[in-house]
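May I ask you to comment on the folded chain given beneath this request?
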Amino acid sequence: MPFTAFEIATQLGGTVLGDGAVLLTGFAPASNAKPGDLTFAESEFYFTQAEQSAATAVLVDGEFSSDKKVLIRVPNARVGFAKVLPLFFPERIFPAGVHATAVIDGSAEVDASAHIGPWCVIGARTKIGARVALQGGNCIGNDCVIGDESNVFPNATLYPRTQIGQRVRIHSGTVIGSDGFGYVLDQGAHMKVPQIGNVVIHDDVEIGANVTIDRGALGSTIIGKGTKIDNLVQIAHNVAVGEHCLIVAQTGIAGSTKLGDHVTLAGQAGLAGHIRLGDRVTVAAQSGVMHDIPVGEKWFGYPAKPDRKMKRELIAIGQLPELLRRVSELEKLLAANKPSSLLPKK
């Protein structure tokens, strides 16, 4: 659907520099833009590229001006970019109804506005809220709750008693509520500790593809409001993740670890069990965290340490070859000259 530059600026709370009536039919990066497209630039470098492109208009947030392009100035170009994309590329709207191949227990409650796709299975006493979409091949266990407007992509699975808030997105292949990894050694054999808790996912969470979130051993594994979880993440039993956290691909969080709000775990980070990370903590990629981290700190490395300390250690390690060479030369000089001051005293 086409929009005028003025209509887009109004949607984004911005202003138009140039012809506000110009019609925009799509959104594209400067390298692929064609006439009628809107692109965006958040630096001088990208603005130069945008001006040289075939795009009709440019979304900007700086004091840019142009004789070649219509500009839409917004407070933050990247935020504007995120808000304008759904105008040109709206998400699929799933029609209400239940596919003929779906299997729904008679005691389940499914809102009339929900979409239940092919080959879905919904267990006993489960509640499916308004405008929920189960896209297909989803197995939803007994006593689950899925809040309004949540979207479960194909082949994602919810074990019994999982609670999902509103507007949650769960991508394909994800398993929520599987048994936590709990065993005790009994006479030389590993005996399973029953995992009788559940998983609670709060509102506005997005969970990527092939994520696994284990149920609590006794209580709940909790994912806080607004948290975003990338693909291939493992979250163990009784973990509590705060609000608006970012957990990047291939991160693993061991059991009973607690994360504050606005925590960022970069790719392949690993967290030991029973530790606490304060609000606004950042853990760099491939770091191994073995200890609690106070509020607002940045840690990295293996084992992870505060960033300034770890940087000093890495710089020192980088200087070791030169230091060893110098020590070796000094030892040779000492062996050849044997200064009297260094000789053993009689």
